[in-house]
Request: fold
Amino acid sequence: MSSPRQKLLLATNNQGKLREYRTLLGNLPVDISTLKEAGITQAVDETASTIPENAVLKATEYARMTGLLTLADDSGLEVDALNGEPGVKSARYAGEHASDIERNELLLKNMAKVPDGKRQARFRCVIAIAGPGLPVQTAEGTCEGRIARESKGRTGFGYDPIFIVEGMWRHMAEMTMEEKNAISHRGKAAAKARKILERLLHQTK
Reply:
């Protein structure tokens, strides 16, 4: 008789993240649900000052609300020429309700006078996993690259259209999901998070 599948709450309603995580966490013996599917309408205020702290904050709070094993991430784009901005404020860079296009346009405007040799940047993702009676565990991944001068590509989301991956000379939004997951910050963090989840699921059998 097989062991019952465990529920895993993905602490997001971002459809781009959801698509990626359903692929990245595929084949794990879990039933994944989103905040909406779990009936959670209360948003956790992302008040922390760093990406890791925000990930831990969201994971622990949503695990407390639901009693479920919870995976939350926080990610951001760090631009060297902008002293690491937008960083932890990446999703709110152009205002609380701005679109991806508006955020990209603002970043390109702020980078307009930065020469090609000084446009280095990286995506950073930290995943936190929390659950009732469990210590919080984290996994981190980064993807190095530079900021382009224009948007290209129709896949991905967020800042993908203006990010050129180091050594690949393509905008991240020009890649297939499989190509992106193999090299992205979220893909690298999720590979480590899978191992954490596998250990936790083995312990609860």
Q: What stands out?
A: The chain has a mean pLDDT of 92. DSSP finds five helices and six strands in the chain.
